[in-house]
Design brief:
- By secondary structure, the chain is an all-beta fold.
- It contains no helices and 15 strands.
- It has strands spanning 2-6, 13-17, 27-31, 36-40, 48-54, 58-65, 70-78, 83-90, 93-101, 107-114, 117-125, 131-138, 141-149, 155-162, 167-173.
- β5 (48-54) and β6 form a beta hairpin.
């Protein structure tokens, strides 16, 4: 028997076909004045529980310890149900992969956090999917060479950043892209 589970907040489609495979899904239904969201509960680790909040702009689903420290997955959605932020917290600080999305569902940015600060390679994108910027962070500061692009993904600016001083400077401008 085939099982198709569809997540209405556009996260993914899970299809499984096979003998002996059991799919267990917990559904979360939230009524708001503007919309109804149906989705999966987050899998929260031991000692944490799922929390939900909303305002006039976003819906949020996160794992939280009883002492109000965020720990585990956190997802924020636009009111249309589209994923806006997919992130993880470790003992109250951002950690691991960070992704943001445009309301259309296109990727807006992706990078890594370590102990609450951006670390590693980060890329941001225009709404058309082309790169806007790319470079590396170290301990929350830009580090090394960063490139900035026009909407056609032609390089327009190259900067050098020093993570020790958290300062950067333009080292090259491209007239027509490169």
């Amino acid at each position: 028997m085939c099982v198709l589970v569809k997540l209405f907040v556009s996260l993914f489609l899970l299809t499984s076909c096979g003998a002996g495979l059991e799919v267990v899904v917990s559904e979360l239904k939230i009524e708001t004045p503007k919309m109804k969201v149906q989705g999966f509960e987050l899998v929260c680790g031991e000692g944490t529980e799922q929390k939900f909040s909303e305002n006039k702009v976003f819906l949020e689903n996160r794992c939280e310890r009883k002492n109000n420290i965020w720990h585990g997955k956190r997802r924020v959605y636009y009111l249309n149900g589209q994923l806006y932020i997919d992130s993880t917290f470790c003992e109250g600080k951002l950690c691991r992969i960070w992704k943001t999305y445009y309301e259309s569902g296109m990727l807006k940015s992706d990078g890594l956090y370590k102990k609450g600060k951006p670390n590693g390679i980060w890329t941001t994108y225009y709404k058309n999917g082309n790169k806007f910027s790319s470079g590396k962070f170290r301990d929350g500061c830009k580090d090394g060479i960063w490139y900035f692009y026009d909407e056609n993904e032609n390089k327009i600016v190259k900067i050098f950043a020093d993570a020790k001083t958290c300062r950067s400077e333009v080292v090259e401008k491209y007239e027509r892209g490169l």
